Every structure is written in C-alpha cells, then in structure tokens.
Amino acid sequence: MSFQLNAIPLLSRAAVDRAEEIRADENALKEGWAKAGLLRVNRRGQVRFEGGALVLDAAAELSAEPSPAAVFLGVGDGRHLWAVRDDELSGALTDLRVVAGELDDFTAGLLSTAMALLNWHDKSGFSAYDGTTTVSVKGGWSRVTETGHEEFPRIDPAVICLIHDGGDRVLLARQHAWPKTLFSLLAGFVEAGESLERCVAREMREEVGLDVRDIHYLGSQPWPFPRSLMLGFAAVADPEQPLTFSDGEIAEAHWFTRAEVREALAAGDWSGQREGARLLLPGSISIARTIVESWAALD
C-alpha cells in the first residue's frame, strides 16, 4: 500500500525571498545594510523572542557596512535580512526545535537558513582544497582562498524511511539516548557513490536487519542540525523477518499497528512525556512526524 505526504513538512514551507541576484552585488548589499534587520544566533542555535516574535536588531548597530561575519538571508518586509553569530546573546532565548510548531513559514525558513549557513562558516575557515585560509564573499554564500578557489555551503544528504508491512503495521525504532518510549523512523547518511534508494536499502539492513522493497520517495526537508537535508522514503518489509541491530545505533524496534500510532499522534508528541505511554512520537519540526501522520491517515 503506497502513500504520499498529506502535508508539506514544516521546515520545507520556507517563504523567505532569498534574493540570489543580490548576493554578488556589493553595492546593493551595502545600500540595503543601512536599514537591514539582523538576526543574532548563539552557538547553541538560540535566538531572542519577545512577545512571541523573533527579534531582529538593526544591522547598522553592528557595523557601518556589511560585516564579513554576517550572512545575507534574503529580503523580507522591504528590507534586507542578515544573521550573525553572537555568543554573548542574552534575554529570552529559545531555539528552532522548541518553537518550530508555533512559527509562521517565513520565520521558520529564516531561522533554518541562518543556522545552516552559520554552522557551515563555523567550520570552513580553512579550505578543504589546499588548507589555506578562506574569507566569506557573496553575502556569506561562498568562501574563497587567496588564490581564488571558491567553496560553497556544504549539505549532508540523509535518508529517513518509514518501513511498513504493506498493511496495518509500521516499524518504529528507538536510539539508545532517547526516552524509553520515544520511537521514530530509521535514518542514515548517504555515502559517496551511492544512490538514495541504495542508501535506504543499506541503512535499513544495517540498523534493523530488514530487507526492504517497493522503496518510493515522499519528500524532503532541510535539517540545519547542523547542515543536513532529510530525504523521506517509504518501503515495505516482512514483519516475520527477525530484527537485528548490528551497527549499535538502535536500542530497540517494534511493529506498531495503525490504531496504536493514531492514538499516539492524538496525544501529542514526546515533549509531553505522558506517564505510562507505550509510544511517544517526534514533534512537528521533524519530517518524521509528517511521514508518520500521512501513513496513519490511510484507511
């Protein structure tokens, strides 16, 4: 029984105008900086909220011209928007994982883009090509060496897959560090020279020992923790095949009925920590939630 997503994953609904044509236009960036909004993000990915709204400072308070430490996010409400790392940030702080379900598409997209870019810059001060230092250019959308070698933000693709039996049961798994009743889908990073479908088959085999078939793509979602792109799939497996946890990542996995999943979805997510619950599911920020909800909605 195949299915499709019945909603766009939360972080895939970004409504930010990235204004790519401005990135290489230094004059346009300088002109826009005077009235630009600046998002400050600490190394824990936390930002300031006041009255339920994201706080954007005046970029001109940071410097007279675009700071090489800042990254250009795009244009919104008629002004340029930038982000910068600020480890001295104070006030009412929170992060994307906590407030994602309460944010509009524009704010969620702004935060996910800022986090992904800043996380890349944090670890890209030296070129992977020749080891020399790099500097930020094009509004933070690339870095160059003294010799002109250019490097771009790195994205780590990962697959995430819902395994079902073709009928009424779905396999959900728990990692060692998770609460005892928190279960989710299986996921893993795509390896060099590997297709997405082959990655799904390999990861499912490595993590729980199952041979999957009828692999089909569902949708994707950025995951800036620190810089991944989650590619959602569904596949079918035989529930009678023994489960084995050979790679050490999974503590346990079980087959749950659609009725059990629907009950867990109706009760909220893992943050509620319901006492006595057999099954807690991921929150709305994760594409895993959207995939599980879409499967559970089938008749």
UniProtKB/TrEMBL annotation:
GO terms for molecular function: hydrolase activity. It catalyses: a 5'-end NAD(+)-phospho-ribonucleoside in mRNA + H2O = a 5'-end phospho-adenosine-phospho-ribonucleoside in mRNA + beta-nicotinamide D-ribonucleotide + 2 H(+). It holds the Pfam family NUDIX-like. It comes from the Bacteria. Gene3D superfamilies: 3.90.79.20, Nucleoside Triphosphate Pyrophosphohydrolase. The keyword Membrane does not apply. Keywords: Hydrolase, Magnesium, Metal-binding, NAD. The keyword Hydrolase applies. Residues 153-278 form the Nudix hydrolase domain. This is NAD(+) diphosphatase.
